[in-house]
Amino acid sequence: MSDKPHLDEEALAELQDVMDDEFEVLIHTYLADSRDRIRSMREALSANDSDALARTAHSFKGSCINIGAPRLGELSLEAEVAGKQSRLEGVPALLEAIDSEFQQVAERLEGLLVR
Q1: How many domains, in total, are found in the chain?
Q2: For residue 95, what is the enclosing H or E element?
Q3: Does residue 28 lie in a domain region?
């Protein structure tokens, strides 16, 4: 697994400064959107739709990088590349890794909201 952190604390602190009162809304939106995108990637895999997988993974990668979740962004890039290359055989394990990493990220982001 990557040596990247689950969350980039520096990027998150910057985002929190910029977003101010809207930071919580951003986190809630990211978490809900992420769950939808992970579900969409699973649906694309089930439908054997490599193009939809690549598009969804690309979009998810961008939001992960923007929120400061580098490992999740890296895993999403792998899913995007697999979709672009129509190489779906390794994607089920990759989606499990994405699910697992998302749980780590979500737990940490939700922890920021409790403070």
Answers
A1: 1
A2: helix 91-114
A3: yes
2 lies in a domain? no
Count of CB atoms situated within 10 Å of the CB of 99: 13
Contacts of 78 (CB under 8 A, 6+ apart): 94
Handedness of CA 42, 78, 94, 28 (dihedral sign): negative
Instruction: Record the tokens describing residue 49, joined without a space.
Output: 């739709």
pLDDT digits (tens, 9 = 90+) for 65-100: 999 999 999 999 999 999 999 999 999 999 999 999
Residue 1 has pLDDT above 60, yes or no: no
8 A C-beta contact, residue 16 and residue 115? no
Q: What CATH number is given to the structural domain containing 56?
A: 1.20.120.160
- The boundaries of the domain holding residue 98 are 9-114
pLDDT digits (tens, 9 = 90+) for 4-33: 889 999 999 999 999 988 999 999 999 999
DSSP annotation of 49 reads -
